[in-house]
């Protein structure tokens, strides 16, 4: 367990430092938002380009990983959406947000820093695969379900086409395309360009964690306790369990990718979750759920990694 805490504790110490820096106004929250934009638009895209450009396509695309991570995420989303809509009698946008919070991890800002400490370079490939599922499947589905209820004058096909058009402008998606083109073509980036990409990529982990901590300042845990408890427990427990079950019973793949698949699922929901909440008028629920899930994830991630290490179900941890 001490070995696991040696991996997870530095991650959450950086989150705590980010929180303290903003709470004490050492770093204004507006600057932290700018740091988040830097990670999303430059550091993470460079990380993906670095991961994809240096490997053969057969090393990158792993159907078993995609099926397990995508299938588990879709299953948990469907359960969360149906429970909120049919049992809790929530509106469609509210149910969509609850399903999103339960099934879409913060892969770039929490999942990757944890996995990179544990698995090294294999975490970069896992990040690329998770991002493919989250940005090409989960995100368009959420926008279609949420926006079609809000914009009743538009058909779901119109909403979907608009969502897909916006994806084409997403720096993460552009980076994946660039990385795949370089991988397929066999092009070697000139050393100065690769060095710049590598430097930006290396900044993604610690800056992302600092941003997560700073972003928690000012979020309040109040009201909506039943909905918040349902979202947080499903995200931190049900989502990892669903993906563990699928990756365990599917054909064997690289054990490090199996461990990465589960560890990414253990992350709290994406950091822009409250922004989605604001889009549909439920920012309070989303902000409170994000703060609670991020706070509790230290325990759940550490426990999950300890169980994987103790049982060695996918083999010993590196």
Task: Sum this structure up briefly.
The chain is mainly α. Helix content is 80%, strand content 0%.
Q: What would your notes on this structure say?
A:
Helix 2 (29-53) crosses helix 7 (122-150). 80% of the residues lie in helices and 0% in strands. By secondary structure, it is mostly helical. It has a single domain, classed as Na+/H+ antiporter like fold. It contains 15 helices and no strands.
In DSSP terms, counting alpha (H) and pi (I) runs of 4 or more, how many helices? 15
Kindly name the structural category.
mainly alpha
CATH topology: Na+/H+ antiporter like fold
How much helicity do the residues have? over 70%
Q: Name the beta content range.
A: under 5%
**Low-confidence parts lasting 5 or more residues at pLDDT below 50?**
none
CATH architecture grouping = Up-down Bundle
Biggest sheet descriptor: none
How large, in whole angstroms, is the Cα Rg? Answer: 19 Å
Tell me the layout of helices and strands:
Layout: H1 2-23, H2 29-53, H3 57-60, H4 63-87, H5 92-103, H6 107-119, H7 122-150, H8 156-167, H9 171-185, H10 191-202, H11 204-215, H12 225-249, H13 255-265, H14 273-279, H15 283-311
Main traits of this protein?
318 residues, mainly alpha, Na+/H+ antiporter like fold, 15 helices, 0% strand
